[in-house]
Each structure stands twice: as structure tokens, then as C-alpha cells.
Amino acid sequence: MHPYLIIADDFTGSNDSGIQLVRHHYPTHVQIRKASAPLASGVSLVLDTESRNMEEKEAEQVLKESLASLHSTDFSTILKKIDSTLRGNIASEVEASASHFAAELIIVATAFPDLGRTCKHGVVYVHGRRLGETEAFRDPRKPVAEDDLVRLFAKRKKTILLDVEQIRSGSFVLSDAEVVVCDAEKQSDLSLVVAWAASLKQRILYVGSAGLAQALVEVSRPSKPALALVASLSETTKAQVEYARDHGAACIVLKVDDLLGQKDLQCYLDQAATAFAKKEDVMLVVSSVLDRTEFDRSLSEGKRQGMDDGQIADLIREKLGNLGKQLLDSHFLSGLFLTGGDTAFGLLSLLGVHEVDIKREVVLGLPLMQVVGSTYDGLGIVTKAGAFGNKDAISYALRVLRQHD
To answer: Residue 194: which H helix or E strand, with range?
Structure first.
């Protein structure tokens, strides 16, 4: 038995979905045009039919020939990978794949929220813009003719829609549908869909992009969330926090007044625990990172308490580090993301870490390290100077930490 079969219609799509398996330590081979060399036990297969730009009838025939030697009993999970902007012969290839594997239910979830592809009321959107208003409808080789997934599939099979409200409330009502189109605005929506589908006693053909592939492996082999401590006042870091927040990381803003005062900080730990329980990465962000006036207020409040600028910074770093240590000690986490030398050094000192092994560069200027010795031996850490990195640096580093684990 092989864990996964992914059927893609072009080579780049094969690889962007296959990498989701590899990230979760599933050995994966890509074969082109037809299943050829036998796979070793436990290896997943990504099959590239190279049929995206063919005429519909030709694409359908090529797909059937490509699948001829494969059986549903050979694979635990089967995904028909489609382009997230709906290019290609989607409906016909899905129908042919479902027929070949005798699928009892087709679950369609095309969203890839990490890349700005979402689905709302069955309609595909790209960065908030309806697909029908984008260049995909003017593609010179294979223009897209339909951006409403319910209309696309209802021409061939009985199709229903599950919107995000139903998905998030757990109201998965199927009646006698053959195709279920699932909305998704966040990656967590896809995870809810997959968790529900895994509970069904039906032979399912999943249909979606790399976002759905990611959700499938996260449910079968979940990774542990990561924790970021962010205190840098850089505008670059602010933009990175906002990007990571908008792409699924929980952003918990620590008010500087709370950090400088005598207030109990348990509410922040509780918020983080709730996010970790949902397998979300967590960013503990000092409020001055997102609002510069908070920094000025912290200086005023600190001086009112008789502290100079250095003592104020030390107290904020100490409180932030203590929160980080408490979360690390009470939850199973994959690693830490730390901004700024003072933040990183302060937490490592608090943890009693005296040695790290540099593993590789995540992106330019962001090293991935692993703790050597101490109670935290093997813990992954990524550090970043305040002004370093593109806007996706924190989001990407958190993903790398999950992979490292």
C-alpha cells in the first residue's frame, strides 16, 4: 500500500503538490505521462499526465491511458490535483479519474489560501478578486471559461456547496450528492474539510491544489506548531508580522503597559494555548511593533516608574522571554522564531542554552539552528535581524520550523 497518489496535469503542478508530501517526510516519486517503474512500499506517487493544454477528448484519453495500471486499492488517499486558477480540462479529467477509481464521493476544495487563492460561495478568488476578472480568463492557450465550481461540476453530476459557515460549524450535510464543493478562506478551513472527510466510510476522490495536498498530509501526519517572539521596531518586521497574521499565524499582541506593570499575563498564555490547540503557529508581538506610539508610551510609563531606556527594554525582553519559556515548557512545539539579538540572547539565556548547531539558511540572512544539549536539545530556532527579509519571511520561517520537526 502506498500513502498517496496525486494526479496532476502539468509538471510544475506535480511538484508543488508533491513537495507537500515530502515536507511531512513521505518519500515521493514523480512519473510523467504514465505510471511506469514500480514503487517501493510506502512511497507515494505523483503522476503528471501533461494534459492541461490538450483538447478535452484528447486529455481524457491520455488520462485514462496514464491511469490504466493503477488501482484504488494501491493507495490510501487519491488527489486529483488541479490548477488553483482552474486552467485545464478540469471537469472531464475529474470525472474520468472518479470513474477509473470507482469513487463514491468527489470532494472539491481548490483553495490555496497561502497563495491568495480562496473560494467563497463556490466562486474562486485570487487575492480577493473574482477569478473571472483576472488574466486566467484571457490565457492564450487554455482560457478559463468558468469560475463558479458548483456550475462547473453540476453540468455532469449532482453537486452541492458547503460554505465556510457550515464547514466551521461542522454542519456537513451531504444528502445524496456526488460532488461536494467546499469553500475555504483559510488553510484551517481545508483542514476541517479533510478531517470531516476522513471520518466518512466512502471511497473519496479529492480534487484541489497544493493547499488541499497540504491539508491532507497535515491531518494524517500533523506537525507541531511553532512560536515566534517579536519585539523589533523595524517597519520591515511590522510588515512581516501582518503578512504572517493574514496567512494563518495567530497574532497575540502584548500591551506594553501590561509588560511594564504588575499585571497578570495569564490571559496571553491562554490565548496562545487556544491557538496551539488548533495547530496554529503563534506570534507573541509587543504592541510597539505594530504601533510606534506604543513605544513612546512605554518610555513615558517606564520613566514614570523611575527606569531609564535600557531598563525599560530589559524589562520588556524579560517579560517576553518568560512568556516564551512558559509556552515552550507547557506545549509540544516544533521550534522558535526570534527577532533581534537581544530577544534571542535573552531567551536562550533563560532556557540555559549555550550551544546551537547551524543547519542551513532559510532565506538570505535567516539561519536555521538546532539546540545542542540542555533540556531543549534538538529544538529548532530561526533568528532574524529586525530589518532583514521580505514580507513573507516570518511566515516562511514558521513553516520551515514545522518541517524541521
So the answer is: helix 187-198
Sign of CA pseudo-dihedral 58, 60, 61, 62: positive
Contact status, residue 213 vs residue 20, Cβ threshold 8 Å:
yes
Q: Is 358 exposed, middle or buried (0-12, 13-18, 19+ CB in 10 A)?
A: exposed
Mutual angle of helices 235-246 and 393-404, in 10-degree steps: 60
Which H or E element spans position 361?
strand 356-363
| Predicted pLDDT of residue 214 | 92
Cell digits of residue 293:
506610539
Classify residue 56 by burial, with Cβ atoms within 10 Å: 0-12, 13-18, 19+: middle
Q: How confident is the model at residue 405 (pLDDT cuts 50, 70, 90)?
A: low
Q: Are 211 and 112 in contact (CB under 8 A)?
A: yes
Q: Residue 124 is which amino acid?
A: V
Proportion of the chain above pLDDT 90, given as a percent: 65
pLDDT in tens, 345-403: 888 889 999 999 999 998 888 899 999 988 999 999 999 887 788 899 999 999 899 87
Q: 375 in helix, strand or coil? A: coil
Average pLDDT over residues 203-232: 92
253 contacts 282 by C-beta, under 8 angstroms: no
Cβ partners under 8 Å of residue 112, min gap 6: 84, 209, 210, 211, 212
d(CA 29, CA 33): 13
pLDDT of residue 143 exceeding 70, the answer is yes
